[in-house]
Design brief:
The complex is a heterodimer of chains A (143) and B (217). Chain A has two helices and nine strands; from the N terminus they run E-E-E-E-E-E-E-E-E-H-H. Chain A is mainly beta and 143 residues long. Chain A has one domain. The radius of gyration of chain A is 17 Å and the shape is elongated. Chain B is an alpha/beta fold and 217 residues long. Chain B has a single domain, classed as Rossmann fold. In chain B, helix 3 packs across helix 4 and helix 4 packs across helix 5. The longest helix of chain B has 15 residues. Chain B starts with a strand and ends with a strand. The chains are: A mainly beta (143), B alpha/beta (217). At the A-B interface, helix 1 and helix 2 of A face helix 2 and helix 3 of B.
């Protein structure tokens, strides 16, 4: 399942994952967006969460993805990955939080900044492209 | 005609090429040879305008002074490079990259046309279903990356005046060699010129009549 939020103000979502993969895309061109995604899985479920955040101008995104697993919920396998592209003067704060009280749970996470290396920049220029920002935005919008 | 006069190229303190002169008429292919480290790829990158290569001398395309242009301007002037090791581009999917190429290169046609054409090209060259949705080159093999390059070259063949092929055959299965030969022929027929770097013996034999050996450059 894929959800795209374009210039959202706030998102407060509690998700009981039943599908193998969820993708949340935040594209912020102005203003501030606060997103709280709370994951409350059933026992014995496997799912992946991917969060992509793009911000430009002087926009801001504050995103927390919380995994909450009480003592009686076991057998959960999950991976939460967050990738952010802050352009211009924008700010992105993003973090996964995990509160796991059952020992029979596998939960991994990652949080990274999108980067354009010098050789990538040259590669794009050799195709006539200089606007990496627009390219990322269009890729996230039209995936 | 592509004319290169007294071209020297260095990266940092290291001089790679010294006093290269080339006159390559449209409709012709030049095979560039030399041992490893002779500067074959550097020559192609110097023509393309890679920013970390310091170039002295002139690179002219008819009356256009390419050496005075930025890399992306050279591309928009009709210089196209098939890279030896194309990178993964973080956050960018293949179709968005193709759409951007269509836009910056002013290729006519709607987005629908482009999607249809690129899907048929992916199929033609043997790239898997759903290729257009994948992040650009992420998890792709060397051969798949090369096919991605060849498809772009085919897509832009009507606009290409100088085609730079940096080991286009490496990583590709034998059956794809014919597609490279066809691409070179079509570029020549459309009045473009080609510089070819290859270690493939058959391609070397095929294009060996017009050769530049950089062994002592």
């Amino acid at each position: 399942m894929r959800k795209v939020y374009l210039d959202a103000d706030s998102l407060d979502l509690t998700l009981v994952p039943t599908r193998p993969e969820y993708e949340f895309v935040f594209i912020q061109t102005e203003g501030r967006c606060t997103a709280n995604i709370k994951l409350k899985p059933f026992a014995d479920t496997k799912f992946k969460i991917k969060i992509y955040i793009y911000a430009e101008g002087d926009s801001e995104v504050d995103c927390v993805c919380t995994l909450d697993i009480p003592k009686d919920i076991g057998g959960v396998e999950t991976d939460i990955q967050i990738r952010s592209w802050p352009f211009d003067k924008s700010k992105i704060k993003a973090r996964p939080e995990m509160f796991i009280k059952n020992s029979n749970v596998i939960a991994t996470h990652g949080n990274a900044l999108g980067t354009l290396k010098t050789e990538d920049k040259y590669y794009l220029a050799s195709k006539g492209i200089t606007d990496y920002k627009e390219l990322v935005k269009q890729s996230l919008l039209n995936a | 005609m592509l004319t290169i006069k007294n071209l020297s190229a260095s990266i940092g303190d290291k001089q790679i090429l010294n006093n290269i002169n080339i006159e390559l008429p449209f409709g012709e292919c030049l095979l560039v040879t030399g041992q490893n480290g002779a500067g074959k790829s550097t020559l192609l990158h110097a023509i393309m305008g890679r920013p970390d290569i310091t170039v002295i001398g002139e690179i002219n395309l008819v009356s256009e002074e390419l050496h005075k242009l930025e890399c992306h301007e050279r591309s928009q002037s009709g210089v196209f490079m098939v890279h030896q090791s194309p990178p993964t581009i973080d956050g960018v999917n293949t179709m968005s990259l193709f759409k951007e190429i269509q836009k910056v290169q002013n290729v006519a046609g709607s987005t629908g046309d482009l999607i249809k054409l690129s899907k048929s090209l992916f199929n033609w060259i043997g790239l898997p279903e759903g290729w257009e949705k994948r992040q650009f080159n992420l998890g792709a093999s060397g051969g798949e990356r090369k096919k991605n390059e060849i498809i772009q070259a085919v897509y832009l063949k009507n606009k290409t005046r100088v085609l730079l092929l940096d080991e286009p055959d490496s990583g590709l299965e034998q059956s794809s060699r014919q597609k490279i030969i066809d691409l070179i022929q079509e570029t020549k027929n459309l009045n473009g010129c080609v510089l070819l770097v290859t270690h493939d013996k058959e391609l070397q034999e095929l294009y060996g009549a017009n050769k530049l050996d950089l062994s002592n450059a």
